[in-house]
Amino acid sequence: MRILAFLAVTATLSACGVDGRPTPPPSVNDNPPPGISISGEARIGVVMR
To answer: Where is region (Disordered) located (predicted)?
Structure first.
C-alpha cells in the first residue's frame, strides 16, 4: 500500500512544470473591447441513407 501511495505522489509531482515556465495573465490593455460578437453556422435536419 505504501508503494502505491509513493507512486501516486511521484506521478503527481513529476507532472509539475511539464508545459514550461509559468506566464503571467495578460494585462488589462490586451483585452478586447467590451461587446458581443457571435458568428458561426447551424444546421438542423434529418439525413436518411
So the answer is: 17-36
pTM: 0.34
pLDDT for 31-47, tens place per residue?
667 788 788 888 888 87
- Rounded Cα distance, 10 and 7, in Å: 5
- Output the CA torsion sign for 2, 4, 8, 14: positive
Question: What is the three-state SS of 1-49?
Answer: CHHHHHHHHHHHHHCCCCCCCCCCCCCHHHCCCCCCCCCCCCCCCCCCC
Query: Which single residue is written with the C-alpha cell 436518411?
Result: 48
